[in-house]
Each structure stands twice: as C-alpha cells, then as structure tokens.
Batch of 3 targets.
Target 1
Amino acid sequence: MLYAELVERETSWDHILALQTVFLTKGLPFSYYVDSHSIFRFVQGRDSFWRRHYKVTDEATPQWKQVLDDCKVKLTYALSPQARGKVERPYRWLQDRIVRTCAREGIKTVEGAREVLRYEVDRYNNHQVHSTTREIPIIRFERAMREKKSLLREFKIMPPYSSTKDIFCLRMKRVIDPYHKISINNLKIRVSGVPLRKEVELRIVPDKKTGLTEIRFWYKDKLVDTQQVKNSDLNLVQF
C-alpha cells in the first residue's frame, strides 16, 4: 500500500495530496485504475452542476484528473467494484481491522483511528506474508525496483512549470476585470502582470496547517504573480 489516510470528509484536495505523496516518494505510475466517483470522473446526469446537458460524460475534467493529465499518467475506469477485486480485497480487510480494533480499544476520534491505520499499513507492507505472493510486500516491491520490473518512473516537473505547487494544486480560470481584479467566491483579488479582460489561470495550493492558501497566477505560460489569502476567505469547501 503506497498511501493510506483517514479524513473526516473526502475531497478532491485530499486525493491530490495523496497523488503528491506517492509521485514524489515512489515515482509516477503508468496508470491509475479507479471507480467512477465524482472526484475521479464527471458523469452527465449524476453530477449536478452540468445537469442541463451543457457537458456530456468526460467532457468536464475533475481537479484530480487534471493533475494526472499534467503528469502524463493514464487513467482507466472500472465499471464495477468486482472489476477492481485486487484493490477492493485488501482495503476491505484493512477497513475490518480498523473498525474492530477501534471498537475493542474504545477509540472514538479520527486521530486515534489514524494511529491504528498507520500500524496496520506498516504490518501489511513490512511484516505480513501476502497470502497470494507468499512474500512480504515491501521485499517484493524493492526487488521489482532493483530489477527494473516496475512501471514507476521518476517524477519530473515539465516546463513551463518550475514548482510542485503548479502541479499538485487546484485549478481555475478567471478574466481580469476593468479594475485589474478577479473574483473567487465573492473574494476580490488584484492581479498584476495581466492585461484587462484577458484570461488568467490560477493554481491554488491550500495549507490546512497554516490556514493560508497560495494562489499562483499564470498568463501565457508565465508565472506573473503569487499571493496568499486566508482559507476561510477563499471558501474552497466545494473542492
């Protein structure tokens, strides 16, 4: 298991942070095999924002998928839980272990459950013999890396970007108004380096620990401005 975390509410940003952790520590995979959760895929008729048929399935690109596109990682969708059996089985096993341990030890907080999760993932990866391969997963993984039998490849930032913040981020586009400002959820931000009425691309990096969000403004493949605002002012709850 390359990544595991418990969160109170599942968001696109949490999944982007998961990508960042895996890509920077293990490398870029050949592909991701996921279900059709709205974080991973836009499905017309289910995702409400475009319900009036302005967009059909897969024409709108979710935030999480945009990160994969920038990293040139292929994406495949499973059409049923059974199709992802090799993924679902260990996660079902892990879920059962966590729930039973928390119930037995009286753990009632997310942080307490995270400690149980970390213990179980460490045991699964580094100590337990896998029932199918008959090997400890970390030993099998490291041997595959040594023998170059893995499809993981080194992560590199591709031009015009120069920071991981421009890859692992939320994205949106805005048009500069006559006052040299843009609006995000009723928050007005003055932007320099972009002509009036031109579109600017925003690459947004929230930080839950500091309570601040860094906004990086791109225009014609150039970073023209960087600003910080309070998370509460930006109100990115929909992400």
Note: The chain has two domains: 12-146, 164-234.
Target 2
Amino acid sequence: MSALATRRLNWGCGMHPEPGWINSDAKEGPGIDLSCDIRNGLPLPDESVDYAVSIHALPELALPEQVPALRELRRVLVDGGVLRLALPDLDRGIRAYQAGDASHFLVSDDDARSLGAKFVTHMLWHGWTRTLFTADLIEELLERAGFARVRHCAFGETASGIPELVALDNRERESLFVEAWR
C-alpha cells in the first residue's frame, strides 16, 4: 500500500489533531476532520481505513458503550487493518499506590494532597475517565467486538509491522498499549 493511499484514523484526537491523519473527535476544532460521536457512528464507509489509533479516548465512554464503539472502529478498518489503543493502566496505578509513589500520579497538590486522592483523581483523569482498564479487560472487549487477534505492546513498539502506528504514542508511564486486527 502506498503512503499516499494509506488512510489512517486518529479517533478521539481531542485538541491534538495530527497532520496526515483523519482526525476525529466529539468536539469541533482546528484540524479536526470528523466532528462526531462514535456512539452515533463514524461518517466513514465500511473498510475505508487502513489503521486506527486512539490515545485515552475509549475510557471516556461508559463500559456498556465500549464494545459498540470498538465494533464501529472495526467496521471502518480494512480486512487485516489494525487498531492501536493506549489506555489508562489500572494495574500500574494500583502498584504505584501500594508502593506509596505519589510522583506517579500527574495531579498537583492543589487538586489532591493525599496519596489516595491523587490515585483516584489521576485514574479518573479529573472526572473524564468513565472506565478503567486492565490487560485482560481490553482483550475481552476487543474479542467481543469481533477483532481476530489482540497483542499487547510497549510504548513506541508495534507488533503490526506498521512503524507509523506508534507515531501518536504518549503518556508512556501510565498507559497500557494494545493492538487488535480486523
């Protein structure tokens, strides 16, 4: 597939759209190509995207909305297309909390002073996160959504063979990364 013909989706881009991607978010803003709510469907044809990336957008949906959203992402992927997700890693947060590592939590003392308050505020990302993730939970959700294969990856590493798939990776210390194939 040529680089010019490659169609790649950045779902849930927020206010950080990336050039060369189809940037989609529920909000409108500069650089956002598709302003829509995935719960109402993406305005893209079936099998029209080679690969998709989502960085911490899925957690903003309630748990019952997750599989339908993942099915919608699967719908727009070409056969063999890959979805890469970065999600808040509940296990890492618990380990940091149990170790007493307040520095793990990206919360100022103005927002929360105690370790427990920092843990909860961070994991819920100041109220934006509605679903927390473990590796086995996201595997189960992706399988229920019909993805054929699921692989866990490290920050900046891909099992897909598509180097550009990691271009949007961020939030390394607090995230789990997973890839799933249509």
Note: The two ends are 17 Å apart (CA to CA).
Target 3
Amino acid sequence: METWAFAVGSGQLHPGAADRLGHFDLVVVDGQEARRRQVVAIRARGAIVLAYLSVGTIEPWRPWYRRARPYRLRDRFEEFGEWYAATSRRGYRRLIARRVAPRILRKGFDGLFLDNTDMIETHRRQARGMHRLARTLGRLVHARDGLLFTQNGFRTIGPSLGAYDGWNREDVSRTYDFDHERYQPVPAPGRRAARRELRRMAARGLFVTASDYVARGDRSATRAAVRVACQAGALPFVTDIGIRRLPRRPYRCP
C-alpha cells in the first residue's frame, strides 16, 4: 500500500464516492453510514476498505445509542459531543463485539479502524476492558482474514498491541487548536515524539499512517505534513478537522 484516505467526515459517501476513493490503496469510511454497495464498489477498484468505529466513546447519533447509553461515563469528549464509554462493563463490550461490529463487517469491509481507544490515557479504570475489547475484535476480524487498525494511544496500547495490524498517528506536524479555533503547527517536541512513535510502531510490525489537519489552501503546511510523515515511514494524509476534504490526487511519499 502506498496511499490512504481517512474519509470518515460527513458527505464523503455521496454518489460517485467510489470513483474518488478508489484511487487510494487503503480507505477508511464510516462503518455505520456506508452501505454494502458502496463498500463493494470501492473494493472493486482495488482498495482495501476499513470501517471506522469509535469504541472509546458513545456517539448519540448512532442507531445503537439506546443500547449503549447505560454505559456512558459521566464526562464527555466535548469537542465532538460524544460520551466516554465504560469499556470496563462486560455489557458494553458484548454490545460492540457481538452486535455492532459484526453487523458492520457484514457489509463487506476488509476490517475495522477503531477510534478513541486512547481514552484510557485519562480513564485508567477502563484500560483493562479496552484491551479485552480490542483483543476480542482482533479475533473477530482476523477470523475473516481482515485487518484491525487503531490510532493514537502509543503509551497505553501495549497490552493489546498484538491485536492490531495497523496504527495511525494524528497531529504529527499540523493540528487544530479547539480553544483558539485555528490550525497551527505542532511544537517541535511534539513533532519529534510523533515521528519517534511512528518508527517504533513500524518496528513492532504494524503498518503505520499519519493524519494531519491543515486549513484549506495552505499548501506549504500540507507539503510539510506530507514530508514529515514520509520521513517517519508513514503513509501521509492531510485534511480539515472535520475530515471532509479529500485531495484530488492521493498523497504519496517520494
């Protein structure tokens, strides 16, 4: 694989999406919103297609929200309006592993892309449950010869590292500041840490990607983000914070 698209933002699955997304080698789309015919169409163009699924948060707009609601923690991921999930509760893990994930995979996906698994960095009591859930989903996906990816959480991924095939690192060199509502460079120490994490994850056998967030039209920042990701051995992707923007041509490393 040489290119990838993190196409989980609203509107990415409009009519004709397969023509745009089929140019990438690896594509991540929303697992619940995607329809089977869309997944099949993108795969028919040669792309590997993974289903995005947040397991560390409970999103109010999902059809499984009513069943997941009893497992909300008291605090929220305010920037995106999601509740953190009580992964320590067996009922929540069973909901995801036995109902939500299998239903999504039946659409023909090549695997899952898990999000917010890093919530255990701030919710340590949920760590054991999160690792159990990741390992369960790994067995589910691998039984179908599929792939399991996640992102972030380098410091806490250890106990479930063996369940994953790939890892994405957000904010390698460019990020979005929610407090000031602006795009900005990641400070030098953060850039060095991100590159180091990507190299270490690759050395552990994971396929690594990077996603950076840049204002529309900022070509200089985009080029820099691609360059830094490639230097770290990761496939680059650059978009807006809402993940609604796709490049006309896939980003490639030299």
Note: Residues 55-239 form a domain with the TIM Barrel fold (CATH 3.20.20.70).
